[in-house]
Design a protein that fits this description.
Elements lengths: L15 H15 L6 E2 L11 H14 L15 H12 L11 E4 L2 H7 L10 E5 L3 H9 L6 E2 L4 E2 L2 E5 L17 E5 L11 H14 L2 E5 L25 E6 L1 H4 L7 E4 L5 E2 L2 E2 H12 L5 H9 L3 H27 L4 E3 L5 E5 L6 H12 L1 E2 L1 E2 L10 E5 L4 H15 L2
Parallel strand pairs: 1-15, 3-6, 3-7, 7-8, 8-9
Antiparallel strand pairs: 2-10, 4-5, 9-10, 11-12, 13-14, 14-17, 16-17
Length: 407
């Protein structure tokens, strides 16, 4: 008799963003006459820039000619993209990452979930709270999270690190031994960041305790402040204790095109084994590489024109974030994020539960958001707004919310 992975049965409800989409859909079907503005799921709205689409078209033409056709590519990614990544994302910032430490994938979400394949099931996992649900759910699927305590809204074997206003959104070091530490900066969902000095504390901890930091830098392109690292590897000592995930989704609008990469330094060794070699072995077996066409599009991001064009889009989203932040603050809400991030994190009024506030905004202002409770226990009482909408729609959404709150 075939058996199933019983850990899946422990997962509560549905995936957060699936539930958000379901509730929006149900309401929209019941009220087709109402215009819903979505500031919820972090999906981009600006199209791919011309430098990227030109490269995609050229790559399609190459694939249609016998003399330039390509079949299976290298599982780790083509050299032209890995070398461009190393030169632009790391070496220009003084970080000595090499092309054979970069692994191209179909996005940071996949790699954040799949990275667990190279770690033992007995590893103790620490997550910031609130947290991007993928970190939690994939470890629960692998059996590292224990059981779900519905009353506490926590997994029994995960170590939760409150990342809240009271500690400046900088979690304290664990009070018990942990092995894998998920850190996201700029953070999803809070929109806050960690400085170089704050990250150095974690690097020193990980090296001293043979732990591994799993660093999600998917939103690094939005960073404005000089003291906030774009990469964990800007911090001395990180090459022996950290793995970094990057994505072209928010940086260059690849949410539907799918491309990202993971950096596993060769200096990172645990149990006498190179994690670079292990990840290479895993990818070579379970992943057949990102398509040549998509990688050509991603490489165009690193051209002079590509950088100019994508930074225009990022500036567009950052202006939306400012509109949301300023509007909510003027309406009297306690607001965070928005400056180095496309996310704005707001405290619900009068301690209202986050799903209740989500429903109120959807039904009374026809604005869709994401409830903080879906990101973990410390997310309760907060709501997340994304800046990835169109400018006019974002302004209108904020005006609706402000009018509702000022009633």
């Amino acid at each position: 008799m075939a058996t199933i992975n019983s850990n899946y049965q422990k997962l509560p409800g549905s995936y957060l963003f699936s539930e958000v989409a379901r509730r929006i859909s149900v309401y929209a079907q019941a009220h087709p006459e109402r215009k819903i503005i979505k500031l919820s799921i972090g999906d981009v709205t600006r199209p791919l820039v011309p430098a990227v689409t030109d490269a995609l078209h050229a790559a399609v033409d190459e694939m249609g000619r016998a003399e330039t056709f390509r079949g299976y590519g290298p599982e780790q990614g083509y050299a032209f993209l890995r070398e461009a990544i190393v030169a632009y994302d790391f070496q220009r910032r003084g970080v000595n990452i090499q092309p054979d430490e970069v692994f191209i994938s179909d996005g940071a979400k996949s790699d954040c979930g799949n990275i667990g394949d190279i770690f033992g099931a007995d590893n103790k996992v620490a997550v910031c709270d609130p947290v991007y649900p993928v970190y939690v759910d994939t470890n629960a699927m692998a059996g590292r999270a224990g059981d779900y305590d519905a009353q506490a809204e926590k997994w029994t074997n995960l170590y939760y690190m409150p990342t809240v206003a009271e500690n400046g959104f900088a979690p304290a070091l664990p009070t018990e031994p942990v092995d894998l530490i998920y850190i996201c900066s700029p953070n999803n969902p809070t929109g806050t960041v960690l400085t170089k000095d704050q990250l150095k504390v974690w690097v020193d901890y990980a090296n001293a305790n043979d732990a591994v930091i799993l660093f999600d830098a998917a939103y690094e392109a939005f960073i404005e402040e000089d003291n906030v690292p774009h990469s964990i590897f800007e911090v001395e000592g990180a090459e022996t204790c950290a793995i970094e995930f990057r994505s072209f989704s928010k940086t260059a609008g690849f949410t539907g095109t799918r491309c990202g990469y993971t950096v596993v330094p060769k200096a990172l060794v645990r149990d006498g084994v190179s994690l670079n070699g292990m990840w290479n072995r895993r990818q070579s077996t379970k992943f057949n590489g990102t398509s040549y066409i998509i990688q050509r599009g991603a490489a165009a991001v690193y051209t002079e024109e590509g950088q100019r064009q994508i930074m225009e889009n990022i500036a567009f989203y950052k202006q939306n974030a400012k509109v949301i932040y300023d509007g909510l603050q003027k309406a009297g809400l306690e607001v965070y994020g928005g400056k180095n991030s496309p996310y704005v994190w707001a405290k619900t009024p009068d301690g209202m539960p986050s799903w209740d506030f989500f429903d109120k905004l959807l039904e009374e202002a026809n604005v869709a958001t994401t409830p903080g409770a879906g990101f973990g226990p410390s997310g309760e009482g907060y709501i997340r707004f994304t800046a990835f909408g169109e400018a006019e729609a974002t302004v209108e959404a904020v005006e609706r919310i402000v009018a509702l709150l000022n009633k």
